[in-house]
């Protein structure tokens, strides 16, 4: 099965966060998974699995 990647525009819509906020979350705070890149450095985005795991972690953390 092929891996589906979520691009930055779609990720912004899914999370309700802006591009700069997402960047801060993964690059500075490490609160969000870093996007995947190809070996040549081309931006691929986030796998659906990465996004789903992040959502689940947010849900678990909010119930504590």
What can you see in these coordinates?
The chain has helices spanning 8-15, 19-28, 48-62, and strands at residues 5-6, 36-37, 43-47. A hairpin with a 5-residue loop joins strand 2 (36-37) and strand 3 (43-47). Helices cover 52% and strands 14% of the residues. The protein contains 3 helices and 3 strands. With 64 residues, it is an alpha+beta fold. It has a 3-stranded antiparallel sheet. The radius of gyration is 12 Å and the shape is globular.
Strand ordering within the main sheet? 1-3-2
Catalogue the unreliable spans.
Answer: none
Describe the global form: globular
Summed over residues and divided by their number, the pLDDT gives a mean of 91
Largest sheet: 3 strands, antiparallel
């Amino acid at each position: 099965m092929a891996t589906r990647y979520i691009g930055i525009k779609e990720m912004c819509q899914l999370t309700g966060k802006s591009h700069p906020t997402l960047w801060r979350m993964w690059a500075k705070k490490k609160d969000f998974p870093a996007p995947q890149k190809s070996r040549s450095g081309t931006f691929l985005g986030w796998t659906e699995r990465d996004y789903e795991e992040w959502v689940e972690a947010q849900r678990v953390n909010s119930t504590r």
